[in-house]
Amino acid sequence: MSSKPPTTAAASPRPENLGVLLREPFRVASARLHERFAERGHPDVRAPHGNVMQFLDDEGTRVSVLAERAQMTKQAMGELVAHLESHGYVERVPDPADRRAKLVRSTAKGNELYAIAREFVAETEAEWTELLGAERMRQLRGILEDLNAGL
Amino acid sequence: MSSKPPTTAAASPRPENLGVLLREPFRVASARLHERFAERGHPDVRAPHGNVMQFLDDEGTRVSVLAERAQMTKQAMGELVAHLESHGYVERVPDPADRRAKLVRSTAKGNELYAIAREFVAETEAEWTELLGAERMRQLRGILEDLNAGL
Questions:
Q1: What's the alpha-carbon Rg for chain A, to the nearest Å?
Q2: Which of B12, B18, B121 comes nearest A125 by C-beta?
Q3: What per-residue confidence (pLDDT) applies to B17?
Q4: Residue B98 burial by Cβ neighbours in a 10 Å radius (0-12, 13-18, 19+)
Q5: The dihedral of CA B127, B128, B132, B135: what is its sign?
Q6: What one-character-per-residue DSSP string does B53-122 give?
């Protein structure tokens, strides 16, 4: 959470602090990526489901861990996972560390989403480079790398 | 969604593209802010509830709009709103534009969270300035402002 958006906030509240300035490009790009999924034959994967797919480890991840990473309740995460499972994008497998527990893992169909996402990320970075120029894009990446390393 | 985190991803997957580099500082700060809320007497406001409070307009916002902004399902957003309402942080009021609809609006108790958040944001920006230096912090803000303006 950051400080409150202004009264006139539309679907994208006007950025007013660095937290919001960081949040908005990611949020806008995520919404666009899910439009791309629909165009590519995956209309059942909507923006909320990004909260599952972007936090999955290759070997699978528990629902409780996904919920913590995505800052969602376990119940809400469980509902997103169930939707993706019913459409074949993820599967539940026993956790080798605890046979009573389950890991959520991407299927081959789910991996098609990652291929689309990689292409989309490359396109988005090219668009941002055109907007900002190569030098400022390089600065942005370097500063963010240092910020992330220091967190 | 961005491309998949590496197999070894812990609670904070290693940043691997600009989307993730943008996402992680916001995500880490949001988790810390909710620890601060607990320390200040608001333990019932947990990280998922930031998805409500950060997207509320002063005059109130419909659940469906909140869900779209937060990239959550309406059902999951409704559950977060109900939790915050039962603890007195938000209230539902008739929408002047459509009497059958309701707006979710912060209460005086909810506004205490924004005061804590503003203080937290100032502290966090000071920490980041110490980490990066004032000049690179200024660069970061300027580049992000231009990026947001161009989206």
A1: 17
A2: B18
A3: 87
A4: exposed
A5: negative
A6: HTT--TT-B-HHHHHHHHT--HHHHHHHHHHHHHTTSEEEEEETTEEEEEEEEE-HHHHHHHHHHHHHHH
Which of B3, B34, B117 is closest, CB to CB, to A114? Answer: B3
- Please give the structure tokens belonging to residue B144: 């992000």
Other beta carbons within 10 angstroms of residue B27's beta carbon come to: 21
Contacts of B1 in chain A (CB under 8 A): 30, 33-34, 50, 53-54, 113, 117
User: What count of other Cβ atoms lies within 10 Å of the Cβ of residue A17?
Assistant: 17
In order of start, what are the domains of chain A with their CATH numbers?
Answer: 18-150 (1.10.10.10)
Report the complex ipTM.
Answer: 0.86
Minimum distance, in Å, between the CA of residue A50 and any CA atom of chain B? 5
A145 confidence band (pLDDT: 50, 70, 90): very high
Query: Which pLDDT score is estimated for A139?
Result: 97
Residue type, A10: A
